[in-house]
């Protein structure tokens, strides 16, 4: 980062947003819309264009806004192992930041329910950040709310999403951190309006999002869990290799493996590795 860049953004109050969500739900487009600039590469394909966690400041009246774009979860060309890799990289990136106000869960307005993959994603995020007051920093942004949607239809869509999804998020909050939340901020935007269309409603939604986020204290990134939990397991196996002249020769093999507990609670094991071998000669007990 250049010194001029640091000077430009060093003395102003920053508002930092982390965008998370499934591939194809419009995180990068939303980031561009928030910053009023094409900072992030976008695509309409099911395969994620964003392959690494990256943050950008806006310019002008958005120069105090820092948006962190992340690779999409549930990518058709990655799977759970890729999600874990992206999660680890995201954590390392966030740890380098000096503050983070808001975690923005990006959902497509066409979603009819809170899918298992989204729940898993949120549970993984919950395991990384400090549990205390976690959900106070979370909001939902519904994307692809077309600006040419008739107002009455849009109102029905908004009420439907709040009615169906709020109970699901209240339940998820209780399961993940034990917090008793009664509401969660929701914003509805069209990040990619057709040229010439009036998209002032979406712009007002973003203003409300930024007002809400800027009022929050920063999450303590120093307490973010940086790595998956690794437990070393050991075992030993002894066998008789020789009996001669009233003595028995014993061979003991010492083994070790890693037990990894992932951000999503999954458990994986490495292969048992031979660490050392010891031989011992003992007299055969006389009866």
TrEMBL record:
GO cellular component terms attached to this protein's record: membrane
GO BP, sorted A to Z: protein transport
Subcellular localization(s) per the UniProt record: Membrane; Plastid, Chloroplast outer membrane
GO molecular function, one term: GTP binding
Pfam families named among the record's database cross-references: AIG1
Cofactor: Mg(2+)
Chief localization: membrane
Highest taxon in the source lineage: Eukaryota
PANTHER family according to UniProt: GTPASE, IMAP FAMILY MEMBER-RELATED, TRANSLOCASE OF CHLOROPLAST 120, CHLOROPLASTIC-RELATED
Protein name per Swiss-Prot or TrEMBL: AIG1 family protein
Native source species: Entamoeba histolytica
């Amino acid at each position: 980062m250049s010194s001029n860049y640091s000077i430009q953004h060093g003395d102003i109050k920053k508002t930092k947003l982390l965008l998370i969500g499934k591939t194809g739900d419009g995180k990068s487009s939303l980031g561009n819309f928030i910053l009023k600039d094409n900072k992030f590469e976008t695509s309409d394909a099911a395969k994620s264009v964003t392959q690494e966690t990256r943050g950008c400041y806006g310019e002008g009246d958005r120069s105090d806004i820092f948006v962190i774009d992340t690779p999409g979860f549930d990518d058709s060309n990655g799977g759970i192992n890729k999600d874990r890799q992206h999660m680890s990289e995201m954590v390392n990136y966030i740890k380098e930041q000096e503050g983070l106000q808001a975690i923005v869960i990006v959902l497509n307005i066409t979603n009819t329910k809170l899918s298992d993959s989204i729940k898993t994603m949120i549970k993984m995020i919950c395991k990384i950040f400090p549990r205390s007051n976690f959900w106070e920093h979370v909001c939902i942004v519904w994307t692809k709310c077309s600006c040419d949607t008739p107002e009455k239809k849009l109102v029905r869509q908004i009420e439907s999403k709040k009615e169906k999804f709020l109970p699901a998020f209240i339940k998820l909050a209780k399961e993940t951190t034990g917090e008793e939340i009664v509401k969660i901020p929701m914003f509805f935007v069209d990040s990619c309006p057709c040229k010439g269309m009036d998209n002032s409603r979406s712009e007002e939604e973003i203003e409300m999002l930024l007002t809400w986020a800027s009022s929050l204290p920063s999450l303590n990134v120093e307490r973010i869990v940086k790595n998956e939990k690794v437990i070393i397991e050991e075992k030993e196996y002894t066998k008789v290799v020789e009996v001669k002249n009233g003595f028995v020769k014993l061979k003991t093999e010492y083994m070790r493996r890693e037990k990894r507990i992932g951000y999503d609670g999954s458990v994986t094991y490495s292969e048992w590795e031979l660490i050392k071998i010891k031989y011992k000669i003992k007299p055969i007990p006389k009866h």
